[in-house]
């Protein structure tokens, strides 16, 4: 793999590094039985970036994510990934597919979030991305974390806006849409039904034996792409819910990636039902139909 640090004298070295990252995503998606369309999209983008005659960073610095989206073969989702690499040097999607994601370190890139707070946010809210943290700050969940008051939430929101501003979609919406509860629960059911037939990944955390042990599902519904896998958080291990809590990532073109967690409810009117955390009311309506 080409590293940006290995050849700073070559202005196109970073292009090759980004191309390697995108190609690695394509290869993992292929091995994990993702759709042919999604695999080809990353592979075509990798080829294009590798042959681009000028540094792709120049495009990003001049026109931001909009400039990346204007390039051939680079759609909104891949433009978001490229901008993440240019901003942070890493691609969280690739880390997730490899099982090497370290969400707490990612959260610590936001000012005012140290190791302890990053741990609390990840374990309590199951937030793995900066976009997920932004959503939690906007909908009030972040304020439920002990030690975070209104002023700190507002400061974090401003910091996130600065970090994510250049990575916004071409046509940002006032409210980011979500898949229906019915579709999320259907993905959850598909994942748990196919659990023993799915490819697996080797998580870096809580894996002393180094085994491939977490099944991963890539699926499509309407114009949404989904990735589902069992939670590997410390809280899931503490409560022995590593084969119950399912984390589902979702995305469609021109919108940032979102995520949710589906769990089995214990107690109350939804006792024993699968529920999307944070959307319990919608789940209640779904089961009444």
Task: Describe the protein.
- The chain is of the alpha+beta class.
- The chain folds into three domains: about 90 residues, DNA polymerase, domain 1, CATH 1.10.150.110; about 60 residues, Orthogonal Bundle (DNA polymerase, domain 1), CATH 1.10.150; about 110 residues, no CATH class.
- It contains twelve helices and six strands.
- A hairpin with a 6-residue loop joins β4 and β5.
- α1 runs antiparallel to α2 and α1 packs parallel to α5.
- The protein is globular.
- The protein starts with 12 loop residues before the first helix and ends with a helix.
Count all strands and give the number.
Answer: 6
Q: Please tell me the total number of domains.
A: 3
Order of helices and strands: HHHHHHHHHHEEEHEEEH
Average pLDDT: 88
Outline: globular
Q: How many whole angstroms does the radius of gyration measure?
A: 19 Å
Cα-to-Cα separation, first versus last residue = 52 Å
Strand order of the largest sheet: 1-2-3-4-5-6
Report helical residue fraction. Answer: 40-55%
Please count the helical segments: 12
**Poorly predicted parts:** 1-6, 170-174
Percent in strands: 5-15%
Largest sheet: 6 strands, antiparallel
What structural class do you assign from the helix and strand content? alpha+beta
